[in-house]
């Protein structure tokens, strides 16, 4: 069975975005990008909520084409172009692209079916609303949190509305040079 791996930046006080939905406080650098690159090599499917998908689609298909494209831009752009993209949306219509699928109904059941298919891991980058839904349904297998050295005080919390206990086992932890703490847990 394929694993569903959830990646999320958080503040020290547990927020994943400001009250306006901004994530410009999330600290990114080459060391973090290298870690994410290793993880994306283990996956062949990306799962997005509509807003995150639209943000990704606006940037990643052409990121490697820019004259100042970084190593990460080139690597992630190549990965983004080849993976299957599953978009969870009640408003977005099905696309005609062969590497994209829109799921708008029976989301937990459809994700369960997706996990049963042959293939590599399925990853979620961001998409806190989708993360909450999948946590409630206990469909996430691995959690990769990047705890940033910032206290936002208020914002969008990740763990509200999660009413079931989820037991986790620490797989890896790492303190990055920029002060971010990476925490990788798997579901028991």
Molecular structure report:
This protein has about 190 residues and is an alpha/beta fold. The protein contains five helices and ten strands, in the order ββαβααββαβαββββ. It has one domain (about 5-185): Dihydrofolate Reductase, subunit A (3-Layer(aba) Sandwich), CATH 3.40.430. About 30% of the residues lie in helices and about 30% in strands. The strands form two sheets. An eight-stranded mixed sheet has the order 5-4-3-6-1-7-10-9, sandwiched between helices. Strand 9 (about 170-175) and strand 10 form a beta hairpin. Helix 1 (about 30-40) runs parallel beside helix 3 (about 70-80). It is globular and about 40 Å long.
The H-and-E topology, N to C, reads as EEHEHHEEHEHEEEE
Helix-strand category: alpha/beta
Overall spatial form = globular
Can you count the helices? 5
The appropriate CATH architecture is 3-Layer(aba) Sandwich
* Count of all domains: 1
Q: What is the residue-averaged pLDDT? A: 93
Largest sheet: 8 strands, mixed
Distance between the termini: 15 Å
- Uncertain segments are none
Give the strand order, joined by hyphens, for the main sheet. 5-4-3-6-1-7-10-9
Write the CATH homologous superfamily.
Dihydrofolate Reductase, subunit A
Radius of gyration: 16 Å
- The tally of beta strands, per DSSP, is 10
């Amino acid at each position: 069975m394929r694993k569903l791996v959830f990646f999320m930046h958080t503040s020290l006080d547990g927020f994943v975005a400001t009250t306006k939905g901004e994530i410009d406080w999330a600290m990114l650098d080459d060391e973090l990008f290298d870690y994410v690159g290793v993880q994306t090599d283990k996956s062949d499917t990306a799962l997005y909520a509509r807003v995150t998908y639209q943000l990704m689609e606006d940037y990643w298909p052409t990121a490697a084409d820019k004259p100042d494209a970084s190593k990460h831009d080139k690597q992630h752009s190549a990965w983004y172009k080849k993976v299957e993209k599953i978009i969870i949306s009640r408003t977005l219509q099905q696309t005609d692209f062969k590497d994209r699928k829109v799921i708008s109904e029976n989301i937990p059941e459809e994700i369960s079916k997706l996990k049963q298919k042959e293939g590599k891991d399925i990853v979620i980058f961001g998409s806190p609303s989708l993360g909450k839904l999948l946590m409630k349904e206990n469909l996430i297998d691995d959690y990769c949190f990047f705890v940033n050295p910032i206290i936002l005080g208020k914002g969008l919390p990740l763990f509200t509305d999660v009413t079931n206990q989820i037991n986790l086992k620490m797989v890896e932890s790492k303190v990055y040079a920029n002060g971010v703490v990476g925490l990788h847990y798997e579901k028991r």
